Amino acid sequence: MSGPALHLAVELDGDGAHPAAWRRAAHSPGQLLTPRRVARVAAVAENAGFTLITLDDGVLPPGSSPDPVGRIGAVERAAFVAASTSTIGIAPVVPVTYAEPFHVSSQLASLDHISAGRAGWVVTEEEQSGAARAWGRPPVDGAEARARESRDGVAVARALWDSWEDDAVVRSVATSRYLDRDRLHYVDFTGETFAVKGPAIVPRPPQGQLVVLGRPERVSADLLDVALVDGRDVAAVAAAAAGAGTPRVFAEVEVALDTPEVTGAERVADLERHAPWTDRGRLRHVGPAGQLVALLADLSRHVDGVRLRPLVLDEDLPVLSRLVLPALSERRLVARPLPGTSLRSTLGLERPANRFAAAAALEEAR
Questions:
Q1: What is the full DSSP assignment across 261-289?
Q2: DSSP string, 213-253
């Protein structure tokens, strides 16, 4: 555990965790994909004091008829949010089941530069067969094969982030010299299905390595900074956290809070008339804000953070901002990210040494 502070993340994709959340949104469906909408919810989360926002994604549209479907790419949204925020961490969901890891690593490194070191990466998988057709690639069938692609993809991205040493960029106007080529390195990765030589086309990220979040049963724990764990109750979450084997652990929690106008249970029932809220084996809180505060306090004894998945963003975010985070702050259970601080520093993670520079220093010492 990183200390007394519980780090709170919030998923901001779409209108909320429920597939019919748009029916209770405070805007028209046509405004969902506008820059103003993205900036507004990110600003609410940052002003509330959240540590991190995540943005779900996938090559196929979310949801299904009769609900509106569609989203802008998570990396593109994250870059926009990075320019309009100053302290909150930003972690897009980027599956590498079919995407080229070289391109993914470049996009994420660029995001870390744009955000001045506040970027993360949530690693997931493309499970639907339609994703392979959309990419024009053969299907990756089976959980083991998808896990292999995720594992290799993260390994390649991490190697590419190190392929530029920190001082590789010279930027000498007097000598017209931009970089020191001796401080760029081939990664020479060969996996079961692809190979990457490198080096990267983007300088090393400000954090050295972005904060990588994912499920430890899908990506090796040694490749993750933060494990995302499920469990229908606190005991199940605690057991999963104990076996994660990662520097930090975040629990997944779905929330439907009571609002001044209607209870969380009534809101869920209203949306259930249109579509079911799929049970994904996560801890779910439906009820008053005070009970959520107590639940999060209990979880703080077992995990370093929680990723909240609000039922309807326009209804739950205000309650979280007004009642939940202030109450946790009064108990000294959460700490607001500080300006100028990287996401790694906020989470209490050290900035890793460059593997190639460290190897060279070791060789010189011999």
A1: SS-HHHHHHHHHTTS-----S-EEEEE-H
A2: EE-TTTS-GGG-SEEEE--SSHHHHHHHHHT--SSEEEEEE
Identify the pLDDT of residue 64.
62
Residue 240: what residue type?
A
d(CA 197, CA 192): 15
CA distance 243 to 294: 24
**Is-contact 140 149, C-beta < 8 A?**
yes
How high is the mean pLDDT in each 10-residue block of the chain (366 residues)? 76 94 92 91 97 93 70 94 96 96 97 98 92 90 94 97 95 86 95 94 97 95 97 97 97 98 98 94 98 98 98 98 97 93 97 91 73
Cβ within 8 Å of residue 213, ≥6 positions away: 54, 91, 120, 121, 122, 123, 224, 225, 226, 227, 228, 250
Hey, is 146 helix, strand or coil? Answer: helix
**5 closest CA partner among 364, 303, 314, 319:** 303
* C-alpha span between 147 and 268 (Å, rounded): 33
Q: Full-prediction pTM beyond 0.70? A: yes
**What whole-number distance in Å separates Cα of residue 65 and Cα of residue 58?**
17
Over its C-alpha atoms, the chain yields an Rg (Å, rounded) of: 21
